[in-house]
Design a protein that fits this description.
homodimer; mainly alpha; 9 helices; elongated; DNA-binding
Chain lengths: 207, 207
DNA sequence: TGATTTTTGTACCGTTCCGAACAAATATAT
DNA sequence: ATATATTTGTTCGGAACGGTACAAAAATCA
């Protein structure tokens, strides 16, 4: 953020960075994902990213700042996945299933054991004592509600929903379905079971 | 667990305990509740319980054993609250609302900031790497599903639900509603808002 | 080539962590 | 009273924690 030239290659001066900060952030996020914010040491993050601690500190600031950045990155990724899935050009039930399929492919990504939702597994724990994390969490949840609701509203206008259906309530139920899937994934539920759960929830939501 | 006589007062021998283990466990649970398993030190637990670390260790074993016991205690409390609420002698919608009201009074209990669900805030984070916690979590979720489903099944038999309603699916939705409430409480949502959410979800579930 | 700039990697600091050792304290039993 | 049993509270130790100082390394600029 020091200077931003429109040129592709301005002229980096000193010793070149050994690692790409963006992918390092992804690896750091993976570490938090597995063991939570408090449960993950900077040494583990250092091992996961291949950056040593001073480099981490120079690139992202302290542990908390690094986490907050990872959290923001995850939100953006989730929002993008959701909006792509909710595209207006497919039927409502298909759109909702796309959302849950997208979520599942995130929850079951990575090398190790299925890890569920990064937010549910890390931010929810810290939200009580850390107001900034709490605020990020609240805003993210709100976004999900709003996006679901908007999609349900257009569905109702298109006649895909009964006229007396309440998009706000159904939106919250759609979010609730996502939440329960996220939790169950972390509890070890198999992917197929969660997919089936989603399918049935979609049926109820679509009336 | 050393000896269990049917007599009320067998004969405690050495120096008497300064604190009641059961309430100490509650205080320890409160500490975990606020800052999670990894985020809570034994010193903080020691301060919260009034027991010093060696006494804690003697009474409960190490940190993890103490946590597991607190988790088991919380589950039992939750199950009891739920089953009381789901009593067959009230209408389905009332019973469900009782469940959510009970959950809310747990989520909003304590001195400090609303703390949501103990399980969601602590066990879900640790479940990835700790198989025993994961197993406890899975079993607990299952119990909720089952209890909801059983209650919904009797409701359908009594004609409170449409004949084509699927108690299993609606049970999962009922659990999902609980999950989303738990998460939102931790994110700072006001109690009245969550109560309203529950009310509307109950309406959808009851058809 | 030599000066400058930036990142890397080693080493270190003070703190906090969990767990245990051990003596003092407080009860019952004889 | 003396012995025995159990808990308490002080103290310690070794490891891990987050964060930083500082020199070596690797690039560009002059």
């Amino acid at each position: 953020m020091v200077q931003k030239k429109s040129n592709t290659e301005p002229k980096p001066r000193g010793r070149p960075r050994a690692y790409d900060p963006q992918t390092a952030l992804l690896r750091a996020r993976d570490a938090f994902w597995k063991t939570g914010y408090s449960g993950t040491s900077l040494d583990e993050i250092s091992a996961a990213t291949g950056m040593n601690r001073p480099s981490l500190y120079a690139a992202f600031g302290d542990k908390r700042a690094l986490y907050l950045e990872a959290l923001a990155q995850y939100w953006q990724l989730s929002f993008a996945s959701m909006r792509e899935a909710l595209a207006d050009d497919r039927p409502l039930d298909e759109a909702l299933m796309h959302v849950y399929e997208g979520a599942l492919s995130i929850y079951f990504s990575g090398d190790g054991r299925p890890r569920g939702c990064f937010v549910i597994g890390t931010a929810v724990t810290e939200a009580i004592e850390d107001s900034e994390i709490r605020q990020s969490l609240a805003a993210g949840l709100q976004t999900f509600d709003t996006d679901f609701e908007a999609r349900l509203r257009t569905a109702r206008e298109k006649g895909e929903l009964k006229g007396d259906a309440d998009p706000a309530v159904l939106g919250v139920l759609a979010t609730a379905t996502m939440h329960t899937i996220a939790i169950r994934a972390r509890a070890g539920a198999p992917r197929a079971e969660l997919r089936e759960l989603a399918r049935k929830a979609v049926k109820v939501i679509c009336g």
